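The records we work with from here on pair a chain with its fold. Taken together, the tokens spell out the fold as the letters spell out the chain. The record below shows the convention in full.
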Amino acid sequence: MRHFEVDLPVLQRLIQTALSQGGSYADLFFEHSSFHELSLRDGTVSQAGAHVDYGMGVRVLFGEQSGYAYTERVAWPEMEQAARTAAAIVSHEPKTIAVSPRVLSLPQYYPMALPWDDYPTEQQIPWLQDLNQMIYAADTRVIKVMARLAHATNHILFFNSLGELCGDMRPMCALSVTCIMQHQGRTENATASRSFRMGAEFLQAELVGALAREVVGRTAFLFDAIQPKGGEMPVVMGAGGSGILLHEAIGHAFEADFNRKNVSIFSDKLHKQICHPSINVADDGTLSHSRGAVNMDDEGVAGQKTYMVKDGVLNSYLHDRMSADFYKTAPTGNGRRESFRHMPIPRMRATYMENGTASEADLIAQVKRGVFVENFSNGQVQIGEGDFTFYVKSGYLIENGRLTQPVKDINIIGNGPQALADISLVANNGRMDNGTWTCGKGQTCPVSCGMPSVLIKKLTVGGTH
């Protein structure tokens, strides 16, 4: 409250104003965020940027109705006007309420050892220069390196008509790099990144070295890769980054707003068997320092782990307060928003499949002819039907149970629910991909994803004819 220069009487008056036209619930969301970035290109850190955002939003709910308004000035006249505007959108029966505050004690999943404000820009620049030098030294075919270091800190204050009062300080940092190589008239490129909720302790020699090796290896790999023949075939999804398919093709369909509106293909499948009993899929806000971690979501609900799929059964949707009220259940800590300018909606955090019992070699040995996919770039998903197309940057052919020819630039086409049902083996090599994943759903949110290797009986692989 000191940070936003407000006190309890002000918060209580705003809630009373927000509910004065008869809403059943109201909340206040204050945010102050600062963002900084440095960019390296052609061997020089030549760009720097900074951005500060500050404001608050008022939300009022009544059943399926919602009203929202925000202001970029945290001063009484503007905040009162925002509260009156949100109240008018959800006008019902005027009433007066008394709100008794209750300070919530929250878990802490991302403590900072070295706040970014205490680590000046001059000390950040050498990390980008070291990354650049390592990549050029690793392979003579490198012709260009582009790198970016970004970090942000968000201060949050939340209060609602239930009297729940809490706050959070959320760090976020990311180091990403693109490598371009040229060899015998061909040019290839690849990227690598890491992102965590951490302070400047994030910057370590081990991290920079790992990113340099990864991006050089990924780029060099592409010179030996081919486009395979397309068709319907078994696919082994590699551990880690394949979790983006889990997020996009399956995870969104478990978000409760899509199910509440009967848009999702899973709308009538709650508590029903949807895949093999060995499969467990979680959305987790409690992973230490994860990009998708939340001490609290943007509705003041404590971070928690939610099993979407447990023993092959659709165990739970991902709920914000509105959908939880509709389904008569507890919110799952998935009410998230891009900023104070947006209402919270059900969003994923860190989405992953838990380990099975097979080895990755066991999965590959099952396949006579298929593909092993490793690195994804982008894709498209239709939430209602669950149909997806994903672009695979690199992988391998599988022939007679062995990895053979490197492959690149292929599409994986299928249906999310069907692909989940067609998983026949799950490996024991689960890994989170801690890259710079950002989810878009009308508004953006940082997320993370991961999974062990899995064998899917059949998907359509788009390659050469």
In short: DSSP finds nine helices and 23 strands in the chain.
